[in-house]
Design brief:
- By secondary structure, this protein is mostly beta strands.
- Helices cover 13% and strands 45% of the residues.
- It has seven helices and 18 strands.
- The strands form two sheets. A 16-stranded antiparallel barrel has the order 1-2-3-4-5-6-7-8-9-12-13-14-15-16-17-18. The chain has a two-stranded antiparallel sheet with strand order 10-11.
- Strand 12 and strand 13 form a beta hairpin.
């Protein structure tokens, strides 16, 4: 919990340093009044809602997006400064299988792990500086158990926030957007989570299984800038139309542990990793019969040396490959729309890499995502997904491993209030760790999330 207190202290310091913004609230109210008197669309009641703070006794308290919605936050957001803190807590229990076997001595108690994320952003145009700029800083604290490492033994990691205990600066970057006649062009530089933009399925973000966040043929094979360690990088994105984008990023080939988030080292021996992605989306269920869908194709290249998983030289030293690479495809498709954002959708992930230098040579995942399956609970989401990881045949030639590890997840995310959600789930992991000595694991998970 010490790390959480540090983040809370940091939050207090930030708020204290910017309290001067609050002095502008009177002027802000006068400006707002002038807009209302001029006949603009904002109603007086809505304007007052924005200006006045809301306490727990306010009947609208349970309708707020944040647990702590206060006047200063609204004033700062109008000036381009946003601050969000999210607490995520998980309870994970391996009921059978995996490392839990007779004589193993593995603790069978419930595992608890949690993340506290603090994100600070400054929009330079709203702040009165220059157009198109965005500064972003992301700090987090992680504490708790490591259920996959200690109790399950799976490769894909059943809980996507599992990490070493740490408090650190995770991301620190600046993005600038140029509004061109042929679309928007944005450039980003700094310490950046590559997986926040690349290799994402929107429907897959519901699930707790890690492979639905980033494909296992990437996460299990190469060091890459993603949770819990981001790396220095440069990203360029061009969006010529609302439906089409092209983007590329090059970043440090091995971010290491990056203790505290400021341990920046670039070493040519570690190489670099570059990602490229093309995405296309179409359809609008509100004004078109075309079902909304998003399709992405990506490829990546890592310039470092990689050991062959099977072949060695006369001294029994693994042969070296000068690089590594892979391709992937991702699809999100609405199947049966309902009212508003509700409806049944499906997603698909596919990725492949060379099997001579990678533990995982192929991955396929996918599932269904049903928002508003209960009519009175239109914000709740039900999901069923399958993540299948194939083990390199070259590796299986020299090691006693199963041909795959497959995880099936059933989960339901219930929005209790806009700032509070709970999410029970169940996962069955077949062939955990692709280890033939381990039985299939049955794992229950329960997540609660508070948006402060």
């Amino acid at each position: 919990m010490e790390g959480t207190y540090r983040l809370l202290s940091l939050l207090f310091i930030i708020l204290t340093c910017i309290t001067a913004f609050a002095e502008a609230d009177v002027g802000e109210f006068e400006t707002l009044s002038r807009r209302v008197n001029a006949g603009e669309s904002t109603s007086v009641d809505n304007s007052l809602d924005t200006i006045h703070s809301s306490g727990m006794l306010d009947p609208r308290f349970f309708e707020h997006e944040h647990l702590l919605d206060f006047r200063l936050r609204n004033i700062l957001e109008s000036k381009g400064f946003t601050l969000d803190m999210v607490f995520t807590g998980d309870f994970v229990t391996n009921h059978s299988g995996g490392l839990k076997k007779a004589g193993s001595g593995v603790d069978t108690s419930i595992s608890y792990l949690a993340n506290t994320d603090l994100v600070v952003e400054l929009d330079t145009e709203k702040a009165g500086f220059w157009k198109g700029g965005l500064f972003h800083a992301h700090f987090f604290n992680h504490h708790g158990a490591n259920p996959s490492e200690d109790k399950i033994g799976d490769l894909q990691i059943v809980d996507n926030i599992e990490s070493e205990e740490t408090t650190k600066m995770y991301e620190l970057w600046y993005e600038h957007t140029f509004y061109l006649d042929v679309g928007d062009l944005s450039l980003l530089i700094g310490q950046h989570d590559l997986n926040s933009e690349f290799n994402i399925t929107e429907y897959g973000l519901l699930f707790l299984q890690s492979s639905f966040g980033i494909n296992s043929e990437i996460a299990n094979n190469i060091p890459v800038s993603t949770f819990p360690v981001a790396a220095l990088g440069f990203r360029i994105k061009w969006q010529p139309t609302d439906s089409l984008y092209l983007m590329a990023e090059i970043s440090d080939g091995d971010p290491g542990k990056n203790n505290g988030g400021f341990d920046w080292k670039l070493d040519s021996k570690e190489g670099f990793v570059s990602f490229y992605e093309i995405g296309y989306n179409f359809g609008n269920q509100d004004d078109s019969r075309t079902m909304p869908g998003t399709y992405k194709f990506g490829w990546w290249y890592h310039s470092a040396d990689f050991d062959d998983v099977r072949d060695t030289d006369e001294n029994d030293v693994p042969l070296q490959h000068n690089n590594n690479y892979g391709i992937y495809f991702i699809a999100d498709q609405m199947l049966f729309p309902g009212e508003g954002e509700s409806g049944l959708g499906a997603f698909l992930q596919v990725g492949g890499v060379p099997d001579d230098r990678n533990q995982v040579d192929f991955y396929i995942g996918g599932g269904i995502h049903y928002r508003g399956i209960i009519p009175s609970r239109e914000k709740d989401v039900l999901g069923l997904g399958v993540a299948h990881t194939s083990i390199s045949e070259d590796l299986r030639d020299v090691e006693d491993m199963d041909s795959h590890e497959t995880a099936v997840e059933l989960t339901y995310r219930a929005t209790i209030f806009p700032w509070l959600a709970v999410q029970p789930g169940l996962q069955v992991v077949f062939n955990p760790g692709a280890d033939p000595s381990l039985d299939n694991a049955v794992v229950s998970l329960f997540r609660f999330q508070i948006n402060f």
